[in-house]
Amino acid sequence: MNYNEAVAGHLKKIYAKNSDLENQNNKISIIKNIYQELDEIYLPQYHKKIKSEKFKTLYDFADYEEMGGLLYLRQENMYVSDIIQLSFKSYYPNIIVHMASHGLIDKISDMYCYLVQNREDINSYLSDEERKLFNILINYKFGILWKEYPSSGFKITSFSRFLLNEIIKMDKLNDIVYIDTDTIYCYNNINFINKIENFLDDMFDFEIIEPKRFLFIAKKKYVEFENKLGIAKIKGYAISPLYKNKNILNMAYSMYGGELSFIDFFKSRKNFSNLFTQAKIKLDRNKKLNRILNI
């Protein structure tokens, strides 16, 4: 049995005792106790994998001391196509490990760093439900740091904003359209993607999500279209869960006779409840008609 498999065995035991963690009111307290339990596990001599020697001092990002994740939108009411999403994996956990490795923040155990840097292999020994618990343990560290050690949380978000602002500075051809904390929306330009990879120096792994079309209304408000005709997602609008069904979204889309007509309609309104009500009525009517025809 290798060490990652042994760690996974401990996580399985922890899951057996805390399988309903997501429903607990005192979740933070339970997670802190689990951290203590994990820190007591024997860890062989461990050399942190410091992927990047860049940004080793606070001076590297001192000008970016602002709270919270970065939101950037190049232009409001912008309809764009061939947009990929660069979605960083374990964004804040990897920043925490990087900063802890260079002594920029403390209160981070070697075991936590080990879990983050070996997350993928450890996950391979866990069931889907056990992975959910493992992901909670990894991702909640940032929130706990922010609550109990605000200065560390402040440094982490400052470092995050620094990285993303530096990437924006590199964007000489306006490839970046939108950034929301750990995801960059940009044109499918391999040269620019390579520049981002070289700049980050293997500090992060990221997933590239296939090109799609978007209507960016404002920060946190956009429509994501399917590769073929139709809507994949509407973000940032108070739409009843009843109307978030994909069939209803696409019926609303089809009622306007094409993407550009739908976009003009969407940009001109703040309340869409009537649109989706009409779409649901039409969808229900079509279903009823189909049932009749099938009889």
For the largest sheet, list the strands in their spatial order.
1-3-4-2-5-6-7
Strand content: 15-25%
Overall average residue pLDDT? 83
Estimated structural class: alpha+beta
Query: In total, how many beta strands?
Result: 7
Radius of gyration: 23 Å
Global morphology: globular
- Main β sheet profile: 7 strands, antiparallel
Terminal residue distance: 60 Å
The named CATH superfamily of the largest domain: B family DNA polymerase, palm domain
Helical fraction: 40-55%
CATH fold-level topology of the largest domain: Palm domain of DNA polymerase
Poorly predicted ranges: none
What's the total helix number? 11
Number of self-contained structural domains: 3
User: At CATH's second level, what is the architecture of the largest domain?
Assistant: Alpha-Beta Complex
Main CATH class of the largest domain? Alpha Beta
Short description:
The protein is of the alpha+beta class and 295 residues long.
What labels would you give this structure?
7-stranded antiparallel sheet; Palm domain of DNA polymerase; 295 residues; alpha+beta; globular
